[in-house]
Design goal:
Helix content of chain A: over 70%
Strand content of chain A: under 5%
Oligomer: heterodimer
Number of strands of chain A: 0
Distance between the termini of chain A: 91 Å
Largest interface: A-B, 57 and 71 residues
Strand content of chain B: under 5%
Largest sheet of chain B: none
Largest sheet of chain A: none
Order of helices and strands of chain A: HH
Number of helices of chain A: 2
Number of strands of chain B: 0
Radius of gyration of chain A: 35 Å
Helix content of chain B: over 70%
């Protein structure tokens, strides 16, 4: 944001605060309804400025998303790898069980 | 020959046990617990942040509705454009998935599967040892072998989990810190949009309530005279009072959100430090940071449940 924008924003902020303070401090009659509309307009300008900041951040953040997604994949891969470790253990258990059966059969012949 | 084979098999298992213990010397259950705690806390803060985004949008919708009841509104204007934060939303969704995934990786229980594997192995070894001559394998050796099987299956899973989490956390530290920093730095904008919108709603409500006969002065077709019973009028002022209380507490709510985000960032740093060094001092630092984060998050959740 350049200096001109900064000054404009500061001016809008100051006008808004001044008007808001006045409207908050007394009961304003219908003949001054225009002041509320003016205050709302200033409020909308401030909101638009903050929305632009957030939208700009949104673009910046999007650039770093692939990096984070890569780590997400890494966590998923880690879980898969642990599961495959367990599957290997399953195989060992199954071999041991079968070995037991083979030994039982062999024992009948020995 | 069969007896010799069985003896060899059991000896190999004992060796495997010793080897597995050497491998798992650095594996740390405590560290897995720390990761688990971190994942839970960061998830809570990320959800609180999503709630704040939604609260801001609702405040803008409410302000427009009240403004419409004062000025009237055309169909095309009856629309509140959502704040363009698609990047932040995607980032938060990713951070939530990341928290959820590391939570699962650090806590998912393979116990049932492991116990079944161990049971099958144990029964095979006991059955084999029964057929061995007594001098080939005594009871203490059988016990060691059976324990070895149990330890092996658990240790392999724990060690793998620890190593993966350590690598992932240390690698992702920078991007996670940067993400939280960005989300925290723009909170000032979210706070201002919410405050301005709520103030607009309150101001307009009170103006309409204070001027129920304003149409005597303003002669437009959209002007509506407000007719309330006394009780309805009191309730309408009460609603304005509640809204004003919300506006007053917004500063504290956003402050506590900033505090919670900073606490999670600190927690992340302490966790990385602890995973790198794996000593008691860094673990105790993490536990202190966790207590502080818990306090901040509790404060934030209290605010949000009151709003």
């Amino acid at each position: 944001m350049n200096q001109v924008h900064k000054n404009n924003l500061a001016e809008i902020e100051s006008l808004y605060d001044e008007l808001k303070t006045y409207l908050d401090s007394c009961i304003v009659g219908a003949e001054q309804e225009g002041l509320y509309q003016r205050c709302d307009q200033l409020a909308e300008k401030l909101v638009a400025y903050d929305m632009a900041i957030i939208a700009n951040n949104s673009k910046l953040v999007e650039q770093s998303l692939p990096e984070l997604e890569a780590f997400l994949m890494e966590v998923k891969d880690a879980r898969t790898s642990i599961q495959s470790d367990l599957n290997r253990l399953n195989n060992i258990a199954s071999i041991a069980r079968n070995l037991d059966k083979v030994l039982n059969t062999l024992a009948k012949f020995v | 020959m069969v007896q010799l084979y069985m003896r060899g098999f059991c000896q190999k298992l004992v060796m495997l046990f010793i080897f597995s213990l050497a491998l798992t010397g650095c594996a740390s259950n405590k560290s897995l617990e720390l990761v688990n705690n971190y994942a839970q806390k960061s998830k809570e803060v990320e959800e609180a942040l999503l709630q704040v985004y939604e609260q801001t949008h609702e405040a803008r919708v409410d302000a427009l509705m009240v403004q419409a009841s004062r000025d009237g509104i055309a169909s095309n204007d009856l629309n509140v454009q959502r704040i363009n934060n698609s990047g932040q939303m995607e980032l938060l969704q990713n951070l939530l998935s990341f928290s959820q995934s590391i939570y699962l990786l650090s806590s998912e229980s393979f116990d049932k599967e492991l116990n079944e594997n161990s049971r099958q192995l144990n029964s095979s070894i006991i059955s084999m040892s029964e057929r061995l001559p007594s001098e080939a394998l005594d009871n203490s050796q059988i016990e060691i072998t059976v324990t070895a099987i149990n330890a092996l299956v658990r240790a392999r899973s724990e060690r793998a989990r620890y190593q993966h989490l350590k690598a992932i956390f240390i690698g992702s530290n920078e991007i996670i810190q940067r993400s939280f920093q960005t989300l925290s730095s723009e909170l000032v904008s979210w706070q201002r949009i919410t405050t301005i919108s709520m103030e607009k709603e309150l101001r307009t409500r009170l103006y309409l309530l204070n001027n129920p006969n304003r149409c005597e002065t303003i002669e437009t077709a959209q002007c509506a005279t407000i007719t309330h019973t006394l009780e309805e009028r009191v309730d309408a002022y009460r609603q304005a009072y509640i809204l004003k209380s919300k506006i007053t507490s917004l500063g504290d709510e956003f402050e506590s959100l900033r505090g919670a985000l900073a606490a999670v960032q600190n927690l992340n740093s302490k966790l990385v430090e602890s995973l790198k060094r794996d000593d008691d001092l860094t673990k105790s630092n993490f536990v202190n940071a966790l207590e502080s984060a818990q306090d901040q998050i509790k404060k934030l959740q209290d605010f949000q449940s009151n709003l």
